Structure formats: C-alpha cells, structure tokens
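3.2 Worked example (two chains)
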Amino acid sequence: MFDKILIANRGEVAVRIIRTARRMGIKTAIVFSEADRDSLAVEMADEAVFIGPPPAAQSYLVIDKIVDAAKQTGAQAIHPGFGFLSEKAEFADRLLAEKITFIGPNPGAIRAMGDKIESKKTAADSGVSCVPGFIGEIEGVEHAVQIAEDIGYPVMIKASAGGGGKGIRVAYNRKDVEEGFPAVRAEAKGAFGDDRIFIEKFVTAPRHIEIQVLGDKHGNVVHLFERECSIQRRNQKVIEEAPSPLLDEKTRMAMGEQAVALAKAVHYDSAGTVEFVASGADKSFYFLEMNTRLQVEHPVSEMITGLDLVEQMIRVAAGEKLAFKQKDLKIKGWAIESRIYAEDPYRNFLPSIGRLRTYQAPAEGKASDITIRNETGVREGDEISMFYDPMIAKLITYGATRIAAIDGQAAALDNFLIEGIADNIPFLGAVMEEKDFRKGDFTTAYIKEKFPQGFEGVPPTPEQETLLIATAAVIRAFTARRAGQISGQVNGAGAGWQRDWVVILDKKHHLTHVDLSEGGADVVIDGKKHRFETAARPGARIITGKFNGKPFSVKIKVAPEGYTLRLRGVTARATVATPRGADLHKKIPEKHKADTSKLIVSPMPGLVISIDAKPGQEVKAGEGVAVVEAMKMQNIIRAERDGVVAKVNVAAGASVAADEVMIELA
C-alpha cells in the first residue's frame, strides 16, 4: 500500500479523497491554483504544492506541473479525481514512464473507452446496442448540418472528450446546429483541450441510467448496479439516485452484464461508469459512453452497497485483488443525491459568483431512519470562483425506501442555509415535492417539461401558506416582545404586549392573533387556532419546530418590508403590520418596472468570448449578439427585441459583472 498519494484536483472531490486516505493511514499531498490557495482541501492535506494561476489550462491541466508536484512531495501515486486530467491517456502514459502509479484505469482502457468516438466503435464491434449517429471527424458547420439532417432532428452535438455536462447541445433544427456546433467546439477546446465533435440521434423520452463498474489488475470486473441520472439541466446532472425506479431485476441484470462485458473487453482495472439511455416505455437501452474515472454521483452507489469506491480505486491501483465477487453484492435501501450549485434558479439558473457569507449544512450521520451525508469543498467565508464548476456541495440522503430517502432529502434541504450568493436549494426542494418525481415517472426532459418558463418558485399549498403566515407573525411578535424588554426603547413596553397583527402574504391580508408562551405560541389565523412550537428566537435564520404537531423548517430573512420565507421550493414575502399599519399599506401604489428591453446585459459575471454585433447593425429578437463564459460554460447572449445597435460597451476578452450593459439598442 502507498505511503503517500498526490491529489491532482480541487474542491469536494479532493476533500473526499483525503478523508478516505486518512482512514486508510495514507498521507496526502495536493496541488492548488491561486484561486484555491485558502481552500478546505489545501487545509486538510498533509502537503500542498502551488501550480499556477486560476485558469485550469495554466494549472490543473498542465501535466508537467502535476508530475513535478509528485516528485517534490515523494508521492508514489496520483489520484486525479474527476474532470481535469482524469481521462487523459497521455497523463496516464506519462505517470507510467515516471514510475508513478495512476489511481485510475490503464492508458489502453482510457483510449478505448474514454474517447466517445472510439468507445462507440468498440461497443459496436462488441455487439453492444448503440444510438444511431455519425462516428468520425466533422469538418465544419456545413458538414455538421448535413450529418444532422441525414440522421434526422433532434440530434445531440457532443464533445468527444467531454464530461460533466460540458460540451453538449441538443439541436432541433438547422439554426441550432449552426449556433451550437461552434459553441460546443469552443467549450471542448477550452475545457478539455480537444475540439473533436460527434453527432448522434437524440432519443426522445429517454432515461439516463448508468452502471458503476469496478475492475482490478487480475481480470476481475463487477458492477455495483445502476444509478438514475435523468434529472438534468443543460445536460448536467442535478439529482441522482440509486437504484433506478425504472428498472426491473431482468433489465438490471442485462445492463449490468453488458457493462461488465464491455469493461472486460478493454481490460478495465479501476472504477468506471458505463452510461446508457433507456426507454421509459419498454426498458430497451442503448450504450452512450463510458466515463473512465470516478463519477461525481458515486456516493449513492456507495450508500446502497456499503463500499467505499475511492478506497477500492486505491487498493486496485496498489495491485490488490477485489475482495468480493458479483454474487456478494446486493442492493440495500435507497439513496438520493442533490447537487447544490452556485446558481440562481429564479434567473434561469445563471451562475452566481461571490463569497459564502453563511454556509450551514445539515448535520451528517444517522438521525431516525435517515442517514445524511454532505460532500463539499467549501466553508463559510470561502469564495465561489468563476473559473471552476458551480457546485457547492452534494447532499446525499439514504433510507430504507425511495420515498423515505426523498422525504429525508427534502427535510435536509430545508435545513441547508447558504447566504451571500444564490443557490438552487429552492428548486431542489420543489422537485422533492413534485408528484411525478415522487412516482418515479420522468425523463431527461423533466426540468424543461415541468418548468417550461424556467423556475419561478412553486405556489404554497394551503397548509404551507398557513405555516408561513404563522412563522412571520410569531417571529414579529417575538421581536416586539424583545423590544419591550430593552431599556431605553421609546414605547417599548407597549410594543411588548402587541398580540394582534396583520400578515400580508401574496397581497392577501390575514388577521392574526399571537399568544406567546415558553415553547412557542398559540396562533389564530383568520379565526382558526393553531399551535406553533419552536425554540427559535429573533435573529434565527432557520425556524424549526412543530406546527400543529408536524415537524417543519422555514428559512427566514429580514427584508426591507418584512420577511422573505423559504419552504420546499416556495419563496414568499410577508409583511407583518399592526391593523392600522395594514390599512395604510393598502394605499401604497404598486411599483412598475422600467423598460430595459433596449439594453442587452450580461446575465452573469464572466469573460466575454466574443461580441457578434457592431454599431449600426440590425438585430432581431432572439438573435445571438455575444458569448459570455462562466464556470466552464459558454452562454449565448441574445437580443430581447428587434432593433439597431447604437453602442457596444465591452470587447472580447473583457470581464463583465452580472447585469452589466454590454450592448445598447437604438
């Protein structure tokens, strides 16, 4: 076994590897860029080596720097995590030449399976069912259009060396190919250093199901069953689970056997994932690709099998045989994983960059019948950078059944508090409550189908609305009583006895009477009595307790005119006033938003890749006029209306802030 390993990665996966290495008694070294100098992973590792500026192309993707770091620290092996160099055969080749062990598959397997074009050829030669598509070099945009029209729309344009949802576009017509092909090629070049592209048929109503495989250097390969990864946005996974609610035992066995056969054909000797697209109608399935690395969503497979995949990768790399056979592996329970991203769900999930002013994750471990696990690489006070993926954490819940795991996930999300940047927790909470998701009835188009206009929050149920009203009223009453207990307050004593309030929620006025007590309050809302139990007091940002005997967690934040409350995908704004104040509130005129359609703004902080319009040029609504890159994704900025360009305020290569005006229309 190794004495020391180097981690050639960052963020939550680096922390994940360090934790397993510590448990195994292995020392760790890590590389870091300038952006990660003060990161949690650097703090946790035994040694750290600086490798350059924030852009990955100048740091984490430079093989010479990684090899030098291994030599400096005396590391005998390197774990690449996922992304960056994890699927680069030339990196594995270099380590082999340097006599440094690569904690991953052999270079031959990476070449055969890691390249999506070559992997499809190998799969086809092995008799594996593949999605119809074009496998070969694509000369340019016109060639791409011809291929797409030969296959038939919709098609998927994919980077050959891609992964993690990067370098993928679905094209429904010629215009989508003309815009999408160069964008995918540019993303692929920037993220992976390889701009080869392939095009395949996009299967409608698909399910994305993948099989986790594990092999050793002695010819043994097993599968660790499947993961359901169909809840995706922009082809990037958002929610994963294991096992899949779609598969029956017969289909599970067939997919597993096919994945193992493919892995054996290329002498696979580490952890890897064989991805399939499956039909929700008849459970037929097609090979998509193989990821020759550890997957982001590997924790759900660990939870249902009891194995530590990072430990298995290290043991296999050290030459050990797998200590179990396929017949020894069983599925036990159900696991759900939510990816918590630094993005604003209310602004079409655009990246959010900044400092984590507050980061309070739910407690890990087993509580009641649910086990909570939180994989993260950040702490309170850390900064989310524009240079890397927007993932803040992965929240995993495990229970005996799927519904238990979902309910546990929803409750854990309710107790996950992030402030300083936008996060997608409200969206994740809404999905956990959505009936088709709970039934397991969905496809990879789930998010687009359920939220066609983007996520605008979900309306509260009558029970949730009553809880939110009660929460706002009780906290306001607590605050008033506290004011009466502080000496020197003008009319403070009188405020402390205020019991009658009007809660204005969604423009509706609710008469509320609050009688405070030691353990909470009795609350009468519109004539109906409720019991509100909580130990929380003014200043708490998560109010927990029981409402009419049922547990709850409501996030609350003081806003200019009251409170902003969040609960399971519901975001509500409540104003709490005295009866007289509520009457005055009715007379306040509504504010109207200014017309900004003549201004083309950057919806996110990022780097301007190109400006595709100039003064005097006529543009049409929906026409792409600029490309801005943030968090490894290129975003086409479009005009909201027809017009003529009056002024261009930025140039390619410039950094822009969120809402910065890039182009003005006459």
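3.2.1 Second chain
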Amino acid sequence: MSDIIRLLPDNIANQIAAGEVVQRPASVVKELLENSVDAGSTSVQLIVKDAGKQLVQVIDNGKGMSDSDARLCFERHATSKIRSADDLFAIRTFGFRGEAMASIASVAQVEMKTKQPENELGTLIRIEGSSILVHEQTAYPQGTSISVKNLFYNVPARRNFLKSNSVEMRHIMDEFVRIALAHPEVAFSFYHNDLELFNLPEETLSKRAVSLLGGSYREQLIPCKEETDFITISGYIGKPESARKTRGDQFFFVNNRYIRSNYLHHAVMHAFEELIPTDSFPFYILFIEIDPSHIDVNVHPTKTEIKFDDEKTVYAIIKACVKRSLGTHNIMPSLDFDYNVNVSGFTGMGFEQQNDRSERTTPSFTPKTFSSSDHVQKSNQSNWERMYSGLENNREEVYQESIKMFSSINGTEEDKQLNKDLLYTENTSTFQLHQKYIVTQVKSGVLLVDQQAAHERILFEKYMNMLQNKFGSSQQFLFPQTLELSAADFAMVIEMEDDIRKLGFVFSIFSNTTIVVNGVPSDVKGGNEKGLFEGLIEQFKQNRTDYKIDRQENLARALAKRSAIRAGNKLTLIEMNSMIDQLFACKTPNYAPDGNLTVVMLDMDKIGRLFM
C-alpha cells in the first residue's frame, strides 16, 4: 500500500492557522493595533471600510522594521519575542507566537510599508494568499502602515459566514475600545467609510474612559488602588447607581492585556453585594500588574483567557480593593480628571471604617401593615363592599354587544369565557390593590390584573404594529435633549435607526457618539424622555442576552418594558377600566411579552373553597 500522509503546503497550513487567529475583521484589527502598540507608537490610526470586509488599515509612528524583518514577519512562527521556552513565562508584550501576520496574509490581500528612523528608504511588500507579489524599497516616513484588503477573498465559505456590517462593526468597536482603554498614553483615531468616529489624544485613564464609554460616567468613576508584593490593582469602578442591567462596560487588563474572567468578575460582584440589584452589573476598569511568571497567557488562540498560579489570592485582593473604594467614595472630593490613576497614590479608610460605612449605606426598609393606617384600612373596606354590590340588569345588553366586538379573540374555551365575563361589566367595583393589581368583579367571580404586565402586553402589540406598518406618531420637544452614548451603543443606535424612528422617536446625529433627541412616541408620559431613550437601549441589550428574538420584536419588548406603568402608580377608575378593555382587545391578552401572566381569575367556586 502506498504512503498516504503528506506535508501540507504552506498556504494551506496558513489558512488552517487563520481559522484560529482570524475569525472576522475584528480579529485583524486586534492583531494590527497590538503590533502598533508593541512597536512603541505614540499615535495610531485605524481606517476601516465596509466594516472591515473591504479594508482594514493601521498606520503608526512606531519604530518600524528593517527590510529583512518586514519579509520575515509574514512567515509562520517568526517572532522577535521568544528565544527559549522560558520566555513564554516572561511575556509583557502582545503578539509573540508569530502566527498573526502569516495567517492574515493567507486569506487577504496585504500591503505593508515600513521604515526605521535611521534608514533613508523604507520597505514595500504586497502579498496575496501567502504569495509575495512585490518586495522593494520605497519612500516612507518613520513607522508602519499595513492594509488588509478583501478579507477571505480566496475562502468564500469563510466570507459567507461573516455577519452584517453592523454586527461586524460592533466587534471592531469592541476591540478598538479595549486597546484604547489599555493605552491612554497613546493617541488613537478611528475612521469608518471616511467618517471620523474617534480622535483620542494622549490623556489620563479617566478621560479616556469618558471619551470611549460616554459622558454618563463622568461623575460616576471611583478610583481603585491596591499594592501588594504579589499584585498591584489600579483603575476605576462605577458608583452603585451607575450599575446597568446588561454586561458590557466591565474590563479586566492583566499586564495591559484585556482578558475575560468570570471568576474575577465574581469577586467584583461580591464586593457590590447588597449595593446593587442582583440582576445588575457594575462598571469597572481594573488593571492587574503581576509578575509574568505567575500567569500563563498562552492558553487560548486569541489570548483573552489566562491562568493564574494563585487565583484565590488574586480574587481576595480584588474583592478587598473594590470594597474599600466603595466604602470611601461618599466622603471623597469630586473626581479630578487630571488625576492619573496609573501614577498617583490613593489612600482610603481602614477596613474597619469601610465595613461600618458599608453598613450605613446599605438601604433598610421597615415593613408596614394594614393596621398602621386607618385611612388605608377604611378605603380598602369601602372598595371590597363596592365589589360585592349587585350589578344592574341593563348591562346585559352591553355584554352582548361586547361579545360580538371581541368574538375574533383566539384562545381556549376557558379564555373566551374569561373575556365574556370580563366584558360583562364596566362597573364601579373596579379598584387598585396596593397600587399594583387591578381587581374587578365579573359575572363568575373576581378578576385580578397585574397592571404592569397588562400594560406591557398592550404596548408591545401596539409597537409591533408600528414597526410592521412603518408608522409612529411623535410628540416634539420645545427644547431638544442631548444624549451622550458609548461608542458601542452609538453604533447600535445607528444600526437600528430606521426601526427606532418607526416607534415615534425623533433624533439627529450631533457628533461621533452624541445624538440630539427631538421627540418621543406620542403616548409616552412626559418628564424623563432622555431616560426613556437610554432605557430603551439598555433593555434592548438585556433582551439580546436573555432571548433569541429578532430585532423588531426586541425593540417592541424593550420600549414596552421601559414605558409601561409601574407598580406604585395610582390609576383612576376610567384608566383601570380602559386598561382592561385594551388588554382583552390584544391578540394574546393573558400573557405579558416575557411570558408572565397578566390576569388571574378567581371564580366563585374557587373563592368558596378557600373558606371550606
């Protein structure tokens, strides 16, 4: 039998390696930006076209490469940072395995221009699919420019797996934000389709965080600092009131390398325990400096996961550091944005003082009973008496007409009977229970309605109708409101601009991350229009995490959730009856969009059994 095992050609081996290293345009952005930072650049420019599918270009003013280094960087496992296996445990730079450039060149058309400051001429190299087309000298200023064009042009199956431009752009934005946050001492600029998205000067970490993540964090940053012989923690956490329902603004950097760690995230969450709701996530940017010999960064192709040799100690120090910062923030002066957390010291209160402070800031609630208020007791007694009062006989005619009106409602026989019973009465026996539930007498018993869940169902179906029929009425503002967003949120709003306008929002683009809101849906109660728009974005992100639903349904759910009547809102008799009528005009009246019940029926038999 003949031999069947053969060595792979270099171009195929590089394409296989690219499957690990280059998954999408954002992977190229990450590798090129990291190389520029490693080259000692003080200014880095990122240019992207067609969400990176057509072009990703990075231009820097770093130390550049010699002619031979420029050629060798496209070879597999060619690196300047590893000489022996021991070097793997002393790494403080980014790229070190020598796979990135070879992998990129195997699946794209690449052009590199580079020059060292001591050389008169630089080097120009053009590569397509691992094949060198041009290698010559050229005039070029100090630094390096790398253009990656038509990614996956020779691997159409991989290109077909790329998502929409908006999705790919969001991934690129994430990579840019992480690297720009980690290096506030470097000036970064970012252009997409010739539009400038960012122009960040060299600045402090606090200013860089606000520039990238939005002005809403300007007054929310708390310095966090801890130094031990084993590890140094520095950075910022957000005040408890800045916590959000969705993850996204949580950053860990180990030796300036962005990492993901659920274990360390749990340490921060534990420190915030009892200060934020259990379903919320605090903001933090935490830098961990540790001897490279205590970590292994080579456990994942993208190097976003690392291993610590003493993870429990790191956990304990992070938790203690965050707790101390939280315990002192209420007595600290306003944050000075010229303060550089990377070089300035921070001295907080002792742990005993911190614990006392935490206990004082933990909210406490005193339960109330019905007997504590004679007024409430008498009011409820009166409502219950009205509930059991007899119904007028002339409502039978209204009942018959209502059945015809709602005969198209789908559901089980039990559901249809519930609808008929409900519409039997537009009566004054309807009342609120603890300003949370609506109670009304119906023909066969008592109906309990969760006012928030019911209103969410009503609004959800209304907003879905708006989105599908492309209309939405708006109420305009006399004074427009300016809203600063994070880069990722801004990109998401632009992606969904048409659908947001269909819901009745009127807004315009003011700058790279700022919009001006001129109007909101006409049926939304006024008073906090800016908060409504912010809430829509946050709820949309939370839904995207919790459910697998399309964008329009997500938007309708998000706006319904954020604009629905909350528990604690007092309703008039007319408002309560109107809500019940609107609920049972819905296609699915018995359930809120998230699946929770909107109504519960207690018929006379069930009520009777309670007393047996």
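3.3 Remarks
The chain is about 35% helix and 20% strand.
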